[in-house]
Amino acid sequence: MAEQTRAGKTRAGKPAPEKTAAEKLGAIQHGYVFEGQAIALGAAIVDGEVRPEAQVSLPLAMMNRHGLVAGATGTGKTVTLQMMSEQLSAAGVPVFLTDVKGDLSGLATPGEAGEKLLARTSALGQEWRPAAFPVEFLALGGDGSGVPVRATVTSFGPLLLARVMELNETQESSLQLVFHFADRNGLELVDLKDLRAVIQFLTSPQGKDGLAQLGGLSKATAGVILRELVALEAAGLDAFFGEPEFETSELLRTAEDGRGVITCLELPTLQSRPLLFSTFLMWLLADLFEDLPEVGDPEKPKLVFFLDEAHLLFEDASDAFLDAITQTVRLIRSKGVGVFFVTQTPKDVPADVLGQLANRVQHALRAFTPQDAKALKATVSTFPVSDYDLEEVLTSAGIGEAVVTVTDEEGAPTPVALTRLRAPGSRMGPSDPSLVAGTAQASPLAPKYATAVDNVTAFEKLGRAAAEQPAPQGPGPSPAGAPTPPPLPSPNLERVPGQAPGPAPGRTDDGGMLGDVVGALGGALGGALGGGLRSMARSVGTQLGRELVRGMFGTSSRRRRR
């Protein structure tokens, strides 16, 4: 029997028998009956009529199979995110979302009933009630009213940082070598000035041995990275990197009444720092992936993560970065985390990632140009066979309507359904700024993250070592006032000037190679700090004394950073 196509014809080209409205309605009703909890999306539209008896929903247990919310600007994507977030919170599932326009802050304020709103919800069979939800407001690097969010350079990792700095693949590889050097030598990279200090040391005459040992790092490339780093600082991005570092476990909280906390990241200056924004979201996912245990397929997800403006994540990304995204999305499902990409068209998402997004909410597309028409056809091709003419439906759907197909509890796609979506119970628009500011100030996270701290890290260690290092004995004096960085710690180094002799070559102390490396640096730094480093190396032992292991994005696990 020939298979029916989306255009309502068989693959042999013969017209398929037209289904009656009752048959279409019955198929949708049957396809969206689930045993477990589900997120109610709205009512199906069949032959141009809203049918409240055909409710379209998404099984809660299938939300960790990831999804896509797409559509042209102004078609209602933001309200869809708001509506889905409310129901997830009510089900006890924490939510993370980004607030590009400020509208999602309305989740913290009850909505207001209006004649049009009540008429719409009544037609959908929705019992609408105003409601506010537990919202945590965050601000990237303190850029906004929310609780400041920071990350250390070392945990951000070279791959993500290279993305922010817009380095090419050669420069990206070189940056990884710089991180490698810092990891091995106990030089903590907390903020940008730490990374700048390490690169300056490696490009100095005193650091030439270290540069040579790194092999693939040329002085010219290191200089390029250094200039890009200075440009980041000049652009004010240094406010994001530092301590205290945000712990991604804060995203998994529930309120006292059992509702999931909705974490809303403010992005008031997205246009001035799009790469930092998109890359930071992948850092959050990578950190969650590293720290969360495997849970398989839980009855409900531990967290649902809405990644807005997803196209920014993939534009001009290196192959290594795209591979890391694909791998993270594929594997984080088993950690109980669902990821929904939010963008304008499915073509914004690479095929390897798009193929993993089992739940689809596609708002209207516009086809004003040949390129738009091509994107429309590509979008239609990604849907299962349906009773709709999707090319027509996707260009004529109204605001707050979307074509939906999700994964049922057996893992199969549900029937495609043009759906009029439900209205959120919270305000569809921004909350009062004073409420946002007050919520952030009263947050239990504020005492922990509000104030930046500057501990002793690579910048201070290298600066102190340069000040304390005695002038080298040689035929000529050093220039007056010229700082001398410490000698390069080497895995084979047994002694440094001013340090007590080490154990015999055949020693079996627990410090191992790390003891040699950190002990050498400790001797160069001298004093209590150097002694502390040597003591730390002895106590770490062989198992934890290895070089820092990094994850798929070059990020370091929080458990290893502590």
From TrEMBL:
Residues 51-561 form the Helicase HerA-like C-terminal domain. Residues 465-515 are annotated as: Disordered. InterPro entries: HerA_C, P-loop_NTPase, T4SS_component. Residues 472-490 have a biased composition (Pro residues). This is Helicase HerA-like domain-containing protein.
